[in-house]
Amino acid sequence: MSQFIWKSLAMCLVVSLFGGGCTESAPSQRSTQDTGSQADAQWDISEEDVAEEDALAEDVSDEDIAIEDAAGEDAAGEDTAGEDAAGEDVADADEPPPEDGTIAIYLAGDLSEKTFSDGFGGQTPKEFEIALSKYDIQTSADAASAVNCFEHDEPTVANMLEDNLMGSCETAAIPSAQYTHGRVKMDWLRITVDGTLHTLGQAFPGEFTFFRAYSDTTYEGESYDSGEGWVEYRGFVTRRVPFTEPIPTEGQEGFRSEVIDGEYWQTFPFHRTMPILAEDGGQHWSRLHWEIYESFRWEEVTKPRYLDGVWDVEPESGSGGEEVKMFGVSWYYITSSAD
Fold first, then answer.
1. Distances (CA, A) of 266 to 88, 131, 215, 296
2. How far is CA 152 from CA 8, 134, 143, in A?
3. 253 pLDDT band (50/70/90 cuts)?
4. Where are the alpha helices (DSSP H) in the chain?
5. 244 with 227: CB under 8 angstroms?
6. Whether pLDDT at 23 is above 80
7. Half-sphere CA count of 267, side-chain side, radius 13 A
8. Lowest mean pLDDT across 160-169, 211-220, 315-324
9. Judging by beta carbons within 10 Å of its beta carbon (0-12, 13-18, 19+), is residue 242 exposed, middle or buried?
10. What is residue 336's predicted lDDT score, i.e. its pLDDT?
11. What's the pLDDT score for residue 283?
């Protein structure tokens, strides 16, 4: 994890001792000012926050509990109806491509257990989302031009704890050829993990969410340039720090990552050549698998109140806590209808 982020957190926490507030959303106004100063203005955790949390924890009465129980009973019927409606929506969204000849792309998280020998602590992200908006196929890794399969006006969001159909196209619209590579435009990534925030001499369990725009994009009504993002802590308080860093372009062997005019593209090989005939009525597909089991990994540190198997974050220290060594994906592989 970038030391820039933790330095930003540390400076904001120091400032917070003198009071102030912190926003819960990324800034809507972009400027050319140093991102470190933006972070300083966005992060505050004060002794008053800690005291308020302690008071709230103690101020729970029998009346409060009775009100919660009554509300839960009243909402039970509505919740069931909502779940049924949501189930219908999901079923519609997961419908297979049309029966005519099609080419489809899937994105799946592989949660299969695996053994790591790196000696690091690890956890499987509790939330993991990736947004894609375009998919091309190519006759070689360096083809002069790619053939577009689909392009969405709004990115399709994949829940990486499941298998996701990202889009498809009709085979009749694709020139007949032997296709060897796929190419996707990735818009943004969001991941949430559990962790413990160490600040003001205390340890606060919570969760950390990381958002990063890989392409120029809009997320929750806010515009982001490629490389912009934020990290948010939710626990006894909610605090968010914005950051901007270059998008990494190194990747696994056979993969090529690049940012072109604000768009982040990843080119990957099919396991076997995929022959496409325009008149073919078959169902062609490729599936990108991301191995995410315990793929958020960090180097364990022995310090007071630090626990093994728990990611500890300490913005006020020079190190920032336990350094992240792997950020959510341990390996990639591709399967296709040609396998």
1. 33, 13, 12, 21
2. 36, 6, 23
3. low
4. 3-16, 35-42, 47-58, 62-93
5. yes
6. no
7. 18
8. 315-324
9. buried
10. 86
11. 86
Residues 6+ apart with CB under 8 A from 11: 36, 39, 40, 43
| Cβ-based neighbour number of residue 331 at 10 Å | 12
The number of angstroms, rounded, from the C-alpha of 226 to the middle of its chain's C-alpha atoms is: 15
**Bridge partner residues of 289 (DSSP):** 108, 333
Confidence at residue 4, expressed as pLDDT on a 0 to 100 scale: 43
CB 207 within 8 A of CB 317: no
What pTM value is reported for the model? 0.73
Contact residues for 225 (Cβ-Cβ < 8 A; gap 6+) = 30, 213, 216, 244, 262
Give the phi and the psi of residue 304 in degrees, each rounded to 5: -55, 135
pLDDT tens profile 283-295: 888 899 999 999 9
Per-position DSSP letters for 79-135, written without gaps between them: HHHHHHHHHHHHHHHTPPPPSSSEEEEEEEEE-------S--EEE--SEEEEEEEEE
The end-to-end CA distance of the chain, in Å, is: 37
* 160 in Cβ contact with 107 (< 8 Å): yes
Rounded CA-CA distance 181/217 in Å is 25
Say if residues 15 and 201 touch (Cβ distance below 8 Å).
no
